[in-house]
Design a protein that fits this description.
Alkaline Phosphatase, subunit A; alpha/beta; 11 helices; about 20% strand; about 500 residues; ten-stranded mixed beta sheet; Arylsulfatase, C-terminal domain; four-stranded antiparallel beta sheet; single chain
Length: about 500
């Protein structure tokens, strides 16, 4: 009997050891079979730092974004690449300060320039790793075929090739402009599918459908790619003027039309999140929400809020470039956290490449890997500085840590009577004559210039200024370009 018990015990131990070995083997092998994370980036137009509930928005609600933040992380010192449309998009997609690759301002229908094929885009990086890729929304990096998304790494595209106010119509009434008035010589807005214009946007009513259209395309793309890793980029047309919103949200907010638009964008976030959940993809998806620049404040009640930051879009003050950034990455990003470290749109390419094992090109980029921050390691400081380039190639400021040095430059201030109901108000040409220093920890509104109290800090940041003046140029001091600027793409004549 004792021998039988002994044999039984030995057999049980053998079973346990075998089971443990098999479990260990399966754990070693499993990572090879786990699909790389999907990535979704929602990119809003002209939404300010104060236009999301968890960033202090009032008079409208953003429950889906607030939930996303509670399930992940929001940044308080995240910056767009520049405070204007085309340049900010170029920065996000290439990991470069836009002036490094020849981008400035916003491209118009008469321009014959766009994204250079020599630049590696984030979509191309994903595509090289076997990802399905799609862009639904505003492109604004060149409208000719060679500049459109399908030529820069995207498998699918539906959207407008530039801003929705670049049309021959009134932004207030939608009526056709008389010859010689404003943008009357512009073509009607093209809605592009793939590389072809399939219809024209010719009324404000047509614009009302854009947010829903992009959202439906995004959801459909997710549903079709459950078995494939995918990169989905949704650069919404709204809330750029003229504002458009579907009937399901018109009149729903206390704030008015702009609030309605923000509520529909929040709905879009919810629809895309729900599609991920229904397809059991949420746990393996990096979901990001951010915006291209701050609010266009001279449009008054049709503009957003900078959330107490100074100025807005088209300026190098904080309201122009500091924007919301929310990331949800289950199992990696700690839930309900706030990151106060510096980060920028140009960091997305190298960070995502690091996460999925993607390859970068040999071109110099300015972005840094901020994976450590996304994973909650707030003791790390992957980014030490932010450059505030604007205009053709003007270095208007540098932030280093909690300090920001504003350099002498001229800008159009919003310190004037704003417009209303779609009409733009005046702006005041304003000059910064001497370097100004601000402590971003104590004074994020940039109200108190403390340069005279901290001359050593001014000199410390000036070393960064001089470095980049040599490398990228600075028209504010007569340096048209530096030693490392690259050319924008051009139509060969």
């Amino acid at each position: 009997m004792n021998q039988q018990l002994l044999r039984s015990a030995k057999y049980s131990v053998l079973i346990l050891l075998t089971t443990a070995w098999l479990v260990g083997f399966s754990q070693v092998e499993r990572p090879q079979n786990v699909q790389k994370p999907n990535v979704v980036i929602i990119f809003i137009d002209d939404e300010g730092y104060g236009d999301v509930g968890c960033y202090g928005a009032t008079a409208f609600q953003t429950p889906n974004l607030d939930q996303m933040a509670s399930q992940g992380m929001r940044f308080t010192n995240y910056y767009s690449a520049q405070p204007v449309c085309s340049a900010s998009r170029a920065g996000l997609l290439t990991g470069c300060y836009p002036n490094r690759i020849g981008f400035s301002g916003a491209l118009f229908p008469h321009h014959t320039i766009g994204m250079n094929t020599e630049e590696l885009t984030i979509a191309e990086m994903f595509k090289e790793q076997g990802y399905a890729t799609a862009c639904f929304g505003k492109w604004h990096l060149g409208w000719q075929k060679e500049f459109l998304p399908l030529q820069h790494g995207f498998d699918e595209y539906v959207g407008l090739p530039y801003s929705n106010d670049m049309w021959p119509r009134s932004d207030v009434t939608g009526e056709k402009l008389s010859e010689g008035v404003g943008r009357s010589d512009f073509p009607e807005l093209p809605l592009v599918v793939g590389n072809e214009t399939t219809e024209r946007i010719t009324s404000l009513e047509d614009q009302n459908k854009l947010t829903t259209l992009y959202t439906e395309k995004a959801v459909d793309f997710i549903n079709r790619n459950v078995e494939n890793p995918f990169f989905l980029y949704v650069p919404h047309t709204m809330g750029h003027i003229p504002l458009g919103v579907s009937e399901k949200f018109r009149g729903k907010s206390e704030q008015g039309l702009y609030g309605d638009v923000m509520m529909e964008i929040d709905w879009s976030v919810g629809e895309i999140s729900e599609a991920l959940e229904k397809n059991n993809l949420s746990d393996n998806t990096i979901f990001i929400f951010t915006t291209d620049n701050g609010p266009w404040l001279n449009y008054g009640n049709h503009a957003g809020s900078a959330g107490g930051l100074r100025e807005g879009k088209l300026t190098s003050w904080e309201g122009g470039q500091r924007v919301p950034f929310i990331i949800r990455w289950p199992g990696n990003t700690p839930e309900g956290t706030v990151c106060n470290k510096l980060a920028c749109a140009i960091d997305l390419l190298p960070t995502l490449a690091s996460i999925i094992g993607g390859q970068l090109s040999d071109n110099t980029i300015d972005g840094v890997d901020i994976t450590s921050l996304w994973k909650g390691d707030f003791a790390s400081t992957p980014r030490e500085t932010i450059l505030y380039y604007f205009g053709k190639n003007n270095l208007n400021g540098v932030r280093k840590g909690n300090w920001k040095l504003v350099l002498p430059h001229t800008y159009n201030s919003y310190d004037a009577q704003p417009g209303n109901d779609g009409h733009g108000g005046e702006q005041v040409k304003t000059t910064v004559d001497e370097p100004e220093l601000y402590n971003m920890m104590r004074d994020p509104g940039e109200q108190y210039n403390v340069a005279e109290y901290y001359p050593e800090k001014v000199q410390e940041i000036m070393t960064v200024v001089e470095k980049y003046r040599k490398e990228l140029g600075d028209l504010n001091v007569g340096i048209e370009k530096g030693s490392e600027n690259r050319a924008i793409g051009k139509i060969e004549s």
